[in-house]
Amino acid sequence: MQSEILFRDFPRSIALRPIQFESDGNPYEKSNPLLLLFDQVEQGYNDSPLQCNVRLLRESVADIMDYRSLGSKAVYGCLGLLQVERAVVTECLPIGEIRPNESVFRIIDVEFYSLANSTRYSVSTYPGNRTSYYDDNLLNDQLPQQSYEHPCTQLRKLLSNGHFYFSSDFDLTKALNVRSTISSTDKYTYDDHFLWNKFMINELLNFRSKLNKLEQLEMDICGFLVLVIQGYVGMQDTLIGSSRASLSLISKLSYKRAGTRFNMRGIDDDGNVANFVETETILQHPETCFSYIQIRGSIPVFWEQQGLQVMSHKIQISRGPAATQPAVERHFNELQSRYGNVHIVNLLGVKEGEFVLGKEYKDRIIDLNGNGLENRVLFTDFDLNSICKNGNYENMAQLFSVIGERIEDFAFFALDMESNRPIFYQKVQTALSKEALNTYVKLMGNISQSDIESLHSRHSILWAENGDSLSKIYTGTGALRSEYTRSGKVTWAGVLTDATKTVNRFYINNFQDKSKQETIDLLLGKLLNSKAIEIHDPVNELIREDMLNRLNDYSSKSTINVYIGSYNLNGHLPSGESLSSWLFAFNDHEREPHLFVIGFQEIVELKAQQIVSVDPEKLRIWEKEISKALNSRPGQRSNYVILRSGQLVGTALVIYARSDIVSNIRNVEYVMKKTGLGGMAGNKGGVAIRLDYHDTSICFVTAHLASGQSNLEDRNKDYHTINDGLIFRNGRRLLHH
């Protein structure tokens, strides 16, 4: 249902009033509709939560005599609250019905309305695409009063990019097999992995949950709240025999580790991986409904690609095996709880960093299966680039021959449309949607070859569009090899198109993605100073105050011991002399350090050719030497694993953690800052590694400053440059630890 926007100037208030009303059976009056009102609240002290009032009232009770209509187009619901702005969907495109009464819409446009003053913000069509400032008090607001770059501009562009979807009929964040259960009939009991506007709308959902059942139902019918996914939704109609059927594809990108290609790779400490997508193929038939799910994501180890990526893939494994394993276990425990048994199809090849990454991945799965999971995580290597090189994608049949038996074991999910009861359950997800669809079609019986070919053709179109959409979200361009996905053929036009996409990716990923990442983090509430808007509730404020006063009743503190050492190596390798006398200088078995933090300077000779490139081999040698010393001390009770290391030419930082505390460490990040030759060379500079140990944030820095007794001013300048220039994700600096 659509709504119109009403506003009041003093005190500032914005209201949503439904435009269309369903007759027959709706539990509210057409002449006295419900309104959802947002009121400005005077803010308290600086650190107090940002607040607003939200009310759900009948029009007769709301007293809207002082409210006026904006006179703008209707809106399709509220996306949520952000800082002092409220976002609404103003334009959308219907995709179709996945099943009867399950419509899906693609968001085309959104607008932000201020609760602080009488302004709203919209990207204009004037040259430069600047944000237009509109005063709601003007009788004619069609022309911008003034034009400037408002903070919501990039966020509005992101939400209007054509990759966000919603439904007013059902919970689009959940797959069919979950929606079919009685416990999931409430469309607002969302899947936490895929709700992209959770940060903005969570307080409004809490507000809804406190209403009685009748008020919840009325509010839902009005369609005031919008739950949004990002990804792809497509539909194709077809015929199976004489019956009409629809083939749909729904891909949902997880927001848990969201970001652009080079800014977000691998896994985090909670087991979330970058570019994680759940894709569901649905075939809706009058008698039954078929569903098949597959998942994909970034390789679940700690890895990254730093620096300018020029036609190469400089991959760095950023955390040691033992320190990686807890996150890998969390990842696969989560997958198994959601999807059951898992079979991995690894498409990495043997070139450049792919081999290193693939080996690390396989090693982690071997350790995983040896840690109580009873080989439930199966692993199949399939070097796609080598096996299908030169466009020989018919060689994909080799994959089916390897895991063909498993395809039948995995099955699919099927629902009886009349009884709404499951017929089959899918046991695991793979990248074999077409084969699963074939299996289902065969079970239906008496399907003509022409119907099967038509189904395959539509399936290919949907998957090509899906690939392009997901690729644009993550890399900025459409998918490579999409021509083959659509037509089953490799053409010169397709090859040239892929080459163009590759060049565009290089530019976008290296020069534009940083600002896009900041916009994504703003939407998700992950920026350093992001604060969620709270709905004013005096009772909650009293509870919060009481909890702060009783903080010591439900929290505890502990002390950790940290050994910090610094060593200028002058370019030398280990001589064979034991490092124990240095590393264990305190010789206290009762207080063995939880962390060893080692800073190196001049780990390589600072020659001209070394200044512009990093030689990691000497650092690897020193890491092994330190590990050997830490874990070979007679009588020691603890084992130490390498947590993270980072290197800037000759400056390096290595952190080792006791193996029994690794699971308590989160959010390990590394950054560096050059100061040599005016910031262009890495012969001087600093390296920093930050981490969270339980609820405490810690940052370590090692630096190599300008040398010489006469260079006091240069050293101080280096210090300030490093101190100001070491910036972690989300804008976190040294002083924030």
UniProtKB/TrEMBL annotation:
Tree of life domain: Eukaryota
Source organism per UniProt: Cetraspora pellucida
Protein known as: 14780_t:CDS:1
